[in-house]
Amino acid sequence: MNFIPPVAFRRLLGFAFVFVSASATAVPTYTVRPVGLGGSYGNTSAINDAGAVVGFSWTAGDLERHAFVHAGGNTTDLGTLGGNFSRARGINNLGQVVGSSRTSQGSELRGFLVDGASMAALPTPGVGSTASGINDSGAIVGSFWTEVQWQSLAYVYQAGTVQSLGTLGGSGSGASAINNVGDVVGSSSLAGDQEVHAFLYRNGLMQDLGTLGGNGSWASDLNEAGQVVGSSLLSDGATLRAFLYSDGVMTDLGSMFGGDSTASGINNRGQIVGYSGRPDFRTGGGFLHENGITYDLNTLLDSEGWYIDSANAINDRGDIAGSGCYRDYCGGVLLVANHPVSEPGGTLLLGLGVVAFLGRRRSRA
User: What does pTM read for this prediction?
Assistant: First the structure.
């Protein structure tokens, strides 16, 4: 029979309520749902707070790659601007979707907006454009190309006006995401075009976020508090690591498996998702980073047989858009967070249950 020493028993009694209370905020498990258009492969890009996911997928028969939105259990083909390719990159809480598509001209790429049922090309001051993000005010960010050496420049589009955000001194830049405050993140070349750094654009100024010691960094997403995530080269010039930029400091988030890692999304709770690889470059997996701890998403699934190879975006509820494989399927997935639920007074009752259980264990020793 197991025996709990008196001192240990008293400590367990003292900490029973603390332990139970902490378990109510434990990391959730996830139920995996495939999203896509029936083709052999696809991926996701963004998710809104209602759980609507956007991305791209091969169509049935693998004839073309189209942008899609998955909402309410149904996946909708968003079509193209006349070409054979489109990809959705962002969605806001109003359900407006942005991305890029080839036009009927074949090689021409244009940013688009889907507001309702139709896909409309966004105006561009250059010869081509992409759209990467949209906030709840309808402000859109992305990149456009000029005819001068196909220079790429970050932009914000709102109320019919395209505003170039400039660069950090180099010849090119691109924007990845915008929050509801109007802050924009992306990357830009420095003077001389020998380095590319992540930037935060705020109040008309583009701020260089630096690197983790290498000569390159790229910002992927930000939340309403202005926390930024992305990836950066380390001082060895070869290793890529996920980062969190907060309060003026860029922090290396490490790697689950010892290889490269990238951070793709962050929500307003500070939860971060991304990809972590192995040194052999052959395998990797999606991760969730929360409260300073990185979790392998494949250890948090309640859906058997799935393998999540990347996590691309996370909403404020904790639902995740990513990609994964199950048997013959490899493509976009929605990971629905299953949060622990406590009834009113449940923490106290459960705490008393722990005490009673420990008491029975002790009395039987």
Answer: 0.86
